[in-house]
Specification:
14% strand, two-stranded antiparallel sheet, single chain, Dna Ligase, domain 1, globular, alpha+beta, 69 residues
Length: 69
């Protein structure tokens, strides 16, 4: 079974496992709203694809909260 990370987080949360705040965004505006809602100073932006090593392909970025909002 292949599921995205956000789907796995939903499943884990339904069983009471603590997961970090976050969400799924399809636009930069949605990403800003999600970032503001976390209250964190830095966030991780990840591409949700069914492929290995997305970090090596540029699919994982750490950004400061001010860069997003």
């Amino acid at each position: 079974m292949k599921i995205h990370e956000y789907q796995a987080k939903q499943i884990l949360k339904s069983y009471g496992v603590p997961v970090r705040k976050g969400g799924v965004a399809e636009t930069p505006e949605q990403a800003r709203m999600i970032a503001e809602g976390t209250g964190e100073k830095a966030i991780i932006v990840k591409a949700q694809i069914h492929a290995g090593e997305r970090g090596k392909g540029g699919g994982v970025k750490t950004v400061s909260h001010s860069d997003v909002v």
